[in-house]
UniProtKB/TrEMBL annotation:
InterPro entries in alphabetical order: AspA/AstE_fam, AstE_AspA_cat, Aste_AspA_hybrid_dom, SuccinylGlu_desuccinylase
Family: Belongs to the AspA/AstE family. Succinylglutamate desuccinylase subfamily.
GO MF assignments: succinylglutamate desuccinylase activity
Job description of the protein: Transforms N(2)-succinylglutamate into succinate and glutamate.
Organism the protein comes from: Xenorhabdus lircayensis
Pathway: Amino-acid degradation; L-arginine degradation via AST pathway; L-glutamate and succinate from L-arginine: step 5/5
Gene3D superfamilies the UniProt entry points to: Zn peptidases
Catalytic activity: N-succinyl-L-glutamate + H2O = L-glutamate + succinate
Required cofactor names: Zn(2+)
Name this polypeptide is given: Succinylglutamate desuccinylase
The record's free-text note on cofactor binding: Binds 1 zinc ion per subunit.
Length: 328
């Protein structure tokens, strides 16, 4: 049976073995802690968290993570750093849905309290507790560099196929973290302007991790992903896990954007005035009314004329799009 099937059938814990150089423990269903037992004296271990499937229908990241797990288990990928691998929302993955009750990636940082208890709010509580426990591991406490990559795929097409969303933080973004993102050959960075309930925001705010939500491409069902399209991300993560620092950018320079405004749906009659298939990072004309609801409308004002994650079908109170300015 392949690892993905074992994961989805909750049999992976009993089946998977790691080389004696790796101390493995499952902290919860779909949460695997791997600590290197031996490494060269001169190399210091950092701490890495890689998560996937926080949205259950975003399968490519899950397949990327399975690939890493498989290589670590076979011993073909050496482990340099303390590593926590998280398969986020298994019940939703089994049903091929983004979530069962509510969006898990809006619940972190205690925001799960604002939702009725359900599949996702229970998982948010569990994942927050696990992250706390992981950061109190002596090996993790001894490391100075903490990074978290939360892998996703976008619902729609995008003018920049691969991009990272960096959570809002008051401290500087670490240069070597931005450099890694640059070297991973993704196309764009987006800097958030406010705090949010995402998983990457949680690890950034509460554990000072260099964190990002990494959008690796478009969402497709299991088995329909062309993993070659994500080979740059896989290679960059392998490089990081092994501590080899061998990747170099092969594409034109990264584009950078900053979030300026969020379009929040507050009413049933909310309207988004762009076609459903509008791509992420589409540039819109000056003064165009992009969205409206009773007593409120959003008009494009330069230079904040790029739209990200437009989606009129979100629940009331949630974000129906972000307006971005391109940084030069
Ligand atoms: Zn997602």
């Amino acid at each position: 049976m392949d690892l993905l099937t074992l994961l989805l059938e909750n049999k992976i814990e009993d089946t998977l073995c790691f080389p004696p150089t790796i101390k493995s423990s499952w902290l919860a269903e779909g949460v695997l802690q791997l600590l290197p037992q031996e490494r060269p004296q001169e190399k210091k271990a950092d701490t890495l968290i890689i998560s996937a499937g926080i949205h259950g229908n975003e399968t490519a990241p899950v397949e990327i993570l399975i690939q890493l797990v498989s290589q670590l288990a076979q011993g073909s990928l050496p482990l340099q750093h303390n590593l926590l691998l998280i398969f986020g929302n298994l019940p939703a993955m089994r049903e091929g849905r983004r979530y069962l009750d509510n969006d898990l990636n809006r619940m972190f940082g205690g925001r799960h309290q604002n939702f009725p208890l359900g599949n996702e709010s229970s998982r948010a509580i569990e994942l927050e507790a696990i992250i706390r426990q992981f950061f109190s591991e002596p090996a993790v406490m001894a490391s100075t560099k903490h990074r978290h990559f939360d892998l996703h795929t976008a619902i729609r097409g995008s003018c920049h196929e691969q991009f990272a969303l960096l959570p809002y933080q008051t401290r500087e973004y670490a240069d070597d973290f931005l450099q890694w993102l640059e070297d991973s050959d993704i196309d764009a960075l987006v800097f958030h302007n406010t705090a949010g309930g995402t998983f990457s925001h949680f690890t950034s705010e509460h554990f000072n991790a260099d964190s990002c939500t990494l959008e690796v491409g478009k969402a497709r069902p299991f088995g329909q992903n062309d993993l070659a399209r994500f080979s740059n991300i896989t290679a960059a993560l392998q490089d990081l896990v092994a501590g080899s620092c061998a990747i170099k950018r092969d594409k034109p320079a990264l584009k950078r954007y900053r979030v300026v405004d969020a379009i929040i749906k507050q009413h049933d009659s909310f309207q988004l005035n762009i076609p459903e298939d509008t791509k992420n990072f589409t540039a819109l004309p000056e003064s165009f009314e992009i969205a409206s609801q009773p007593n409120q409308s959003w008009k494009i004002t330069f230079p904040a004329n790029f739209i990200l994650f437009p989606n009129a079908r979100v629940a009331i109170g949630l974000r129906a799009g972000l307006l971005l300015v391109q940084l030069t």
